[in-house]
Amino acid sequence: MTETLTKLSPSEVQARISAGRAVLVDIREPDEFARSHVAGAHSQPLSALEQSHLTVDPDADVVFMVLKLAPVGLIAGLAAGFFGIGGGFLIAPGLMASTGMTLANASASSLVSVSLFGTATSLSYASAGMVVWPLFGALVAGGAVGTLAAMPISRRLAGKGQLARSLFAVMVIAVGMWILIG
User: Fold this and answer.
1) What CATH number is associated with residue 23?
2) What is the pTM of this model?
3) Under a CB-based contact definition with an 8 Å cutoff, are residues 100 and 47 in contact?
4) Could you tell me if 36 and 89 lie in one domain?
5) Does residue 140 lie in a domain region?
6) Using CB atoms within 10 A of its CB, is residue 46 exposed (0-12), middle (13-18) or buried (19+)?
7) Which residues, 6+ apart, have CB-to-CB distance to 40 below 8 Å?
8) Which of 44, 62, 65, 180 has CA atoms 20 to 30 A from the CA of 139?
9) Rounded-to-integer distance, Cα 66 and Cα 99, Å
10) 150: helix, coil or strand?
11) Is 58 found in the same domain as 14?
12) Per-residue pLDDT tens digits of the chain, which is 182 residues long
């Protein structure tokens, strides 16, 4: 079976669903799906997509609803570029809001994208001689110690999604206030 991705307009999606040629899969979390969803959509949270199997007609097209993802990426990119901040700070909450990802999945996805973009940017700055290597070393060492110290806390928060999201939100607000008051 060959899988292809095709961009469809909302009217094309509706026509395919009405004709029975497509299945709409909403990847938001169940509470978001319960609040509102497109009629006929199947709820399949992104956080559980890999652990479960979606049973659909094998001849039907599967359409995943991720309409909010591109605008969130655009806003995060614009803000990161304008303010000169790390986009990862904005990517994780954006992924959570637009796809319903869990904090853990959004953080992991954010880290991958930031690593890719950050590597290219870092190489550019380093080749221009703009890196202060002793400060870089201190930052890496502090980050390593902080990561090791946070691992036990992360394990404790693994089953407490709401608490983890709340702590993340408090951290975002605290950093924002620090920048504002600065």
Assistant:
1) 3.40.250.10
2) 0.47
3) yes
4) no
5) no
6) buried
7) 17, 24
8) 180
9) 6
10) helix
11) yes
12) 455 666 667 677 777 777 877 777 777 778 777 877 766 777 877 767 666 666 666 666 666 655 567 777 787 777 777 766 666 677 888 877 776 667 777 888 888 877 877 787 788 888 999 999 999 999 999 999 999 999 998 888 877 878 888 888 898 899 889 988 97
Clarify whether residues 40 and 56 are in a common domain.
Answer: yes
Pairing of strands 42-43, 61-65: unpaired
Question: Given 3-state DSSP classes, what are the helix, strand and coil percentages for the chain, each rounded to the nearest 5?
Answer: 65, 5, 30
Range of the domain at 180: 145-182
Are 46 and 17 within one domain?
yes
Q: Where are the beta strands (DSSP E) in 7-164?
A: 22-26, 42-43, 61-65
The residue type of 85 is I
Q: Look-up: residue for tokens 């008051």?
A: 181
For 75-109, how does the pLDDT look when each residue is reduced to its tens digit (9 = 90+)? 777 777 776 666 667 788 887 777 666 777 788 88
DSSP 41: P
